[in-house]
From TrEMBL, chain A:
This is Autoinducer 2 import system permease protein LsrC. Its main location: membrane. It is a multi-pass membrane protein. The lineage of its organism: Bacteria, Bacillati, Actinomycetota, Actinomycetes, Kitasatosporales. The chain crosses the membrane at residues 32-49, 61-80, 112-132, 139-158, 178-201, 231-251, 263-279, 286-305, 311-331. Part of the ABC transporter complex LsrABCD involved in autoinducer 2 (AI-2) import. Probably responsible for the translocation of the substrate across the membrane. The complex is composed of two ATP-binding proteins (LsrA), two transmembrane proteins (LsrC and LsrD) and a solute-binding protein (LsrB). Keywords: Cell inner membrane, Cell membrane, Membrane, Transmembrane, Transmembrane helix, Transport. InterPro entries: ABC_transp_permease.
From TrEMBL, chain B:
This is Sugar ABC transporter ATP-binding protein. Coiled coil: none annotated. Residues 12-530 form the ABC transporter domain. One of its GO terms (molecular function) is ATP binding. The keyword Signal does not apply. Keywords: ATP-binding, Cell membrane, Membrane, Nucleotide-binding, Repeat, Sugar transport, Translocase, Transport. It comes from Streptomyces lycii. It comes from the Bacteria. The keyword Metal-binding does not apply.
Length: 350, 538
């Protein structure tokens, strides 16, 4: 019997070390792979059409990606807790229209308009979050319902009208067109939100608790994590970010209708999953999700530049999504198996 | 004697606490005192209410009635966080970890030491974890993810979690020099430490190490509640013992002067012999039948290794072992729920298609799983639908499922198993645990199996129903059914089985015939202490 033998701690250590670096490598690999794919795509398209990387080309690319990156960051916080928020597209749309209407009627500047967007998003997130966390209704159903309800509110409000750029105060539009040291405001704002969220999720107890909830909900409860409050918090964040994105949408495009970001929720979820945030929660970073969003946006732009039919974009996004999920599954199985072998410390010979 | 005189105030106490789950009364008017500086044993059979009591202490369950007293004052734990903040640490029997997070994060989740701006101090977290691991004498890397840890290592993480709990500041005058733990100091600990079978998966060395730590804590004034099915551990570590039976407190007394027999009598409340049907003794023709189930060198990497055994017609074979030894996993692989990496399963002489429960069922295998509510039943469906689920191919008329045939099948089995119910159309969820178990049994027996695998068939059901289930299994075996029974309940194993197979850490360590099976021989093999080398199954 080997059981009374203490494990040799030195050997155990080195085994564990390599197990850890293996896991680290796997997760880093995901972000590196996406970054690599992105680079190849950009270089390839550039070779085919040099205008793709002209000043204006790069600016367009960043502007196009900003809103999706923002939404992906918000969505990540929710998905990490093993939930989902399908209402973000509708929230963005409603916020954009409401902000447009308000700005056109009152002539207020960007500050107040942004606040309004944030407020609308906050309220939407509060309703979804309360139903999911305290009402214990499955997230998929709640946010699907919210998607339609918010869309309905938007249609009712707009009554088929649209707000055109000429009605929107210049101050608001300058937020969409202006830049700082040559970099447009929108990508700067998106990056700021991204960096702050990434920093928060990594360095704060609350952030780590979101991961804990997604990794083991019951374990989180037993560890004294206020699960419902945290899940509500994730939805508040996702909603608020979506509201913010709506205000930026107005600033960027000027012309808004009732259902601006119609269907975006699925693109956002795709970006998050492609970027390595497991749909089952507990793993992934907002940086990965942002890279995913950037990749999907770049594919769209590249197709346009290469004069390939736009309908291919959907198919490519779908294929990427399937590849990402398959890769997750395979890697997960491999890693689990590797870790299991390394942890059988009682010398089960092969 | 170290038993505190009646003078001191218990740090944590229960007063007439009751807790019910549906129709099951898990705790009835239980009173318990935990004094500072004592190691208190909690004894009782499976289903006696120990786990519920622990969950009440740890804030995971709220009592229906009765009071919790902290330092003599009534207190209400709204959740595990409240209990934790009051200094109550609980080591749960089945570890609940975050597989994706590191060992260090698992231990300090929600309590990570912080540095400027409220950021988590990763270095301190890692150092504190390393210090805890040194204290426990294990070489577990703080940075590795919990995914893939063996049950024993998971248990270590749970223990480390409990030990890392700092004594709450301000709640009481802390002993000199032990105020809120600076990061890296793993020396402070909970005021109350509850350990539910902490040694179940540990090696001898690790157990000794844990006991030394417990002894230190006790000397520092921590009250420890210790649950173990190994009586000798209780006698070694504890000063007082409280016995639970059927959710009620039977006794609370000093361990000094008690014998193991006394304790067992209090736990069981009657002589063991009465519990088991007499036909289980001396059946000479048993074991001469053909092998109904043969498992050959079955292996699942990192879970169990090289498992070979046979179960013959008319035989009840028990698969014993500690929690996490891999018994349930073997059953799952035999039935084809999990894929085995190597080896094969034969039913009535023919090899089973691997990883296919459908093929297993067609060959006459039935598996009554351990997790009755989660895997055995659809609790929101009616009794008749549940029993009908395994026979949807049989209870058809003209291609459609016939309600009449389904009801007939259910009614028939309800009578045979003496099921207590009001209507067959009631959802299974409203039945008591014992009756739910009967429905699961009916569901599988209705398939007319040749081999029945039952995983913890009587866990958490009342004594009366337990005896009925035992009688039923015996009767089925007498009719020629081959039964493989996984059980952690030693009296059940000894009372029911014709042969006892024992697993320890993923391997079969002993095969003990009925005549030689005793509590000692089974436990020795289950803990890997001096179990005899096992000859290959014939």
């Amino acid at each position: 019997m080997t059981t009374t033998v203490e494990r040799p701690s030195a050997a155990g250590q080195s085994g564990e070390r390599s197990a850890r670096s293996l896991v680290d490598a796997v997760f880093r690999a995901r972000e590196i792979t996406i970054a690599g794919a992105l680079l190849l795509l950009v270089l390839g398209t550039w070779a085919a059409n040099p205008r793709f990387l002209s000043d204006q080309g790069v600016k367009d690319l960043l502007l196009n990606a900003s809103i999706l990156v923002l939404l992906a960051v918000g969505q990540s916080a929710v998905v990490i807790t093993r939930n989902i928020d399908l209402s973000v597209g509708s929230v963005t749309g409603l916020s954009a229209f409401a902000c447009g209407q308000f700005a056109a009627d009152s002539g207020h500047g960007p500050g107040v308009v942004l606040l309004l967007g944030l407020g609308i998003g906050f309220v939407c997130g509060l309703v979804s979050g309360a139903l999911v966390s305290f009402g214990r209704v499955p997230a998929l159903v709640v946010t699907l319902g919210m998607l339609y309800v918010i869309q309905g509110v938007g249609y009712w409000w707009a009554q088929g009208e649209q707000i055109s750029a000429s009605e929107v105060p210049d101050g608001v539009l300058r937020l969409g067109s202006g830049s700082l040291l040559g970099v447009p405001y929108l990508p700067l704002l998106a990056f700021a939100v991204l960096a702050a969220t990434g920093w928060f999720l990594r360095n704060y107890r609350t952030g780590r608790e979101l991961y804990a909830i997604g990794s083991g909900p019951e374990a989180a409860r037993l560890a004294g994590v206020p699960v419902r409050r945290r899940v509500l918090g994730a939805y508040l964040f996702s909603g608020t970010v979506a509201g913010f994105a709506g205000a930026l949408w107005l600033a960027r495009f000027g012309t808004v209708v009732a259902d601006n970001a119609h269907g975006w929720e699925l693109t956002v979820v795709s970006a998050v999953v492609v970027g390595g945030v497991a749909i089952t929660g507990g793993t992934g970073t907002v940086w990965g999700a942002a890279l995913g969003a950037l990749l999907l946006t770049t594919i769209g732009s590249a197709l346009a530049v290469l004069k390939i039919d736009a309908f291919w974009q959907g198919a490519i996004t779908g294929a990427l999504l399937l590849a990402a999920i398959s890769a997750d599954r395979i890697v997960n199985l491999r890693v689990t198996r590797a870790l299991r072998k390394r942890s059988s410390r009682h010398g089960h010979g092969a | 004697m170290e038993q505190p005189d009646p003078g001191p105030v218990p740090v944590l106490a229960l007063r007439d606490v009751s807790k019910s789950f549906g129709a099951v009364r898990a705790l009835r008017d239980v009173t318990l005192d935990l004094f500072p500086g004592e190691v208190h044993a909690l004894a009782g059979e499976n289903g006696a209410g120990k786990s519920t009591l622990i969950k009440v202490l740890g804030g995971a369950h709220r009592p229906d009635s009765g009071q919790l007293l902290l330092d003599g004052r009534p207190v209400r734990f709204r959740g595990p966080a409240d209990a934790r903040d009051a200094g109550v640490a609980v080591i749960h029997q089945e570890p609940a970890l975050f597989p994706d997070l590191s060992v260090a994060e698992n231990i300090f989740m929600g309590r990570q030491p912080r540095r400027s701006l409220g950021r988590i101090d990763r270095r301190a977290v890692r150092a504190a974890t390393a210090a805890l691991m040194r204290r426990l004498g294990v070489g577990l890397d703080p940075d590795r993810p919990a995914r893939g840890l063996s049950i024993a290592d998971q248990q270590i993480v749970e223990i480390a979690k409990a030990l890392s709990l700092p004594a709450p500041a301000g709640r009481r005058p802390a002993p000199a020099g032990s105020l809120p733990a600076p990061a890296g100091d793993a020396g402070s600990a909970a005021r109350v430490l509850v350990m539910d079978e902490p040694t179940a998966a540990l090696t001898g060395g690790e157990t000794a190490r844990l006991f030394a730590v417990v002894e230190t804590l006790r000397a520092e004034g921590t009250a420890v509640l210790f649950i173990s099915h190994r009586l000798e551990e209780m006698f070694r570590l504890c000063t007082r013992v409280t016995v639970l039976r059927d959710g009620q407190r039977v006794s609370s007394e000093p361990l000094d002067g008690l014998t193991e027999d006394d304790l067992v009598r209090r736990m069981v409340g009657r002589d063991l012999g009465e519990l088991y049907p007499e036909q289980r003794t001396g059946q000479a023709e048993r074991g001469n039948g053909k092998a109904a189930l043969a498992v050959r060198r079955l292996t699942r990497e990192g879970v169990f290794h090289d498992i070979s055994f046979e179960v013959r017609r008319g035989e009840i074979v028990a698969l014993a072992g500690l929690v996490g030894a891999g018994r349930t996993e073997v059953a799952q692989a035999v039935f084809g729920v999990d894929r085995a990496d190597a080896g094969r399963v034969e039913v009535a002489g023919s090899v089973l298609r691997p990883a296919s429960p459908t093929a297993a069922m067609a060959a006459g295998l039935a598996l009554v799983p351990e997790d009755r509510r989660g895997r055995g039943l659809v609790t929101s469906l009616s009794i008749e639908h549940n029993i009908g689920l395994t026979g949807l191919g049989v209870i058809r008329r003209g291609g459609l499922v016939s309600r009449a045939l389904e009801r007939g099948r259910a009614a028939d089995w309800a009578v045979r198993l003496r099921l207590k119910y009001s209507r067959l159309s009631d959802p299974v969820g409203v039945l008591s645990g014992g009756n739910q178990q009967k429905v699961v049994l009916a569901k599988w027996l209705a398939t007319g199996p040749g081999v029945l695998i039952v995983d913890e068939p009587t866990r958490g059901i009342d004594v009366g129903t337990k005896a009925e289930v035992h009688r039923l299994l015996s009767a089925l075996a007498a009719d020629g059914l081959a039964v493989l029974m996984i059980s952690s309940d030693l009296p059940e194993v000894l009372g029911m089985a014709d042969r006892v197979l024992v697993m320890h850490e993923g391997r079969l360590t002993a095969e003990i015939p009925r005549e030689l099976a005793t509590e000692e021989s089974v436990m020795a093999a289950a803990t890997g202490r001096g179990g005899r080398a096992r000859e290959d199954a014939v």
